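Chapter summary example.
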Amino acid sequence: MFCPNCGTEIKEKKTFCPKCGSPLGVEAVQEDTKTVEAAASTENVHENVIPPQGAPVPSKKGGKKKFIIGGIVAVVLILIAVMIGTSGGNTGSTSTDTYIETVQNGYLGEFTDMTVQKLLSSYYEDLLGCTAEWDGGENDDGQQIVEVKYTDETVGDTTIQFKMLDEQVFKISAFHDPNTEIEKASDLAAELNSLYFMAYTTKHETELDSAEKMKVFIDQLDQISGSAVLYGAAANYTGDRAQLCTLFGEDALETSVPWVLDAYGYLDMNDYAQQDTADTTAVEPASTADASSADYIFPSDRQYITEDNMAGWNQKTALLARNEIYARHGYVFKTQEIQNYFAAKSWYTPNSSYDGSDLSDVEKANVDTISAYEQKMGWTEQDVSPTKLAQGAVSSYVESQGDYCTGFDYVRPYAENEYLVCAKIGEYEWEAEYIVEVNGSDAWVIGRLDGGVFRPV
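The structure predicted for these 457 residues follows.
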C-alpha cells in the first residue's frame, strides 16, 4: 500500500502516513483490515489500532461469531416454544401418558398373567360391549390419577380410578359401576377377584377342563390374600407383589381369594374345601376365667366344615362350634353357660337385635353339617329352639323364591308342632306370614296366611 500524498510505500497497517502524516483514507483502512483478517487465519495478530476521532471503526474479529452463537440460542428457544405450544402448554403430558401406560400394562396384585387393561376389557369391552376411554392428571392434592371410563348406553358408565403411589405402584382409589354396590374394601376386592376369576377361567377353559385341574387352580388362589387385587404395580416391578398392601400401610385381608369369592356367591367352595387347615384335636370348652385366651374353634365363616374336621370332638365342642357361628354376629344366648363362654371372648360383641338369621351360605351349610354330626353321634341339641328353627326355615324358603328376609316381627305357636312366623321381605320390608312345621331339629314351611286364609306352598 502507498501513501496517496507522498507515494511512500507502507508495508504495515497504518492510519496515517509515517513520512508525511497524511491520513490514508477509508478504502485503505478497509483493504488493510481484510489483509489483517486474512493473516489472522494463519497467525495471531494482537496490534491495537486506535483510529482518530471520526475515522471508521473496523468490525471486531469476534463480532460475527457472537452473532452466530446468539442466533443458535434464539433458534433453540423458538423450537422449545413451538414444542410447548404443540403440547397445549402442559409440560406434564408426557408423564401422564407414562402413568397411563404403567397402569394399563401393569398387574393387579399377584395376578401377573393378565394386564390391568386386558383384565378389565375382558369384561367391560368383550362381554358387555362398552367403549373404553383412558385419561389421567393430577387431583386437587397434587396426586397423579389414572382413570378409565367404560361407556354403554344400556349398561351405563363404569369409572375406575387408580392413584399412583409412586412411579411404579398404584392403588384403585375409586370404583363406580351402576350395577355393583360397593360399600367397603372387601366388596371391591370381591368384585375385582371375580373379574379375574371369570377372565382367567374363560381364557384357560381348555386347561381347566377337569375338577382336578380346577382344584389345583383354586389351591393356587388360596395362597393369595383377597385384598391383594386392590393394589397394582408396573410390569417391570421387582418388589414383592404380595406385600403391596402392607407396603403402603394397609392390612391385607386374612381371607384368601377363593373364600372371598365364596362369601360373595361367586364361587362354591364346597368342592374345594381344604381338609388339612383345621385342628381336629378335641377342644374342651374353656372356663369363664381362661376363655379369653382361646381362639375360634373353627373358621366357620369362610370354610366349609367336614366330618374329618370334627373327628375327636366331644359333645360340648360341637355345641360351642355350632353356636360360634351365631356368636360371630353377636347373638345373645339364652343358656347362661353358653353366653358366659362367648362373653369371655375378645372378639364377641353382643347384639340383642340379631335374631340368628342372615347367615352366609357357608355358615348355613356349617350349621347343618354340625347339627347332622351331633345327631349321628346321638348328642342332644340343647340350645336350638323351635322359634329359631322356624325363622331359619322361613329365611331359606324366601331365598329359594328369589327374595330375602330382613328380619322378623314375631314367631308364635300356631298349632301342634307348628309356628306362625311374620317375616319382613325384600328392600321395602313388606310383611308376610308363614306357617312352619317343626319336628325335632328339622323345620320347613308348609304354607302361608294370605288375608287370614291358609295357602299351602
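To summarize the output: The chain has 13 helices and eleven strands.
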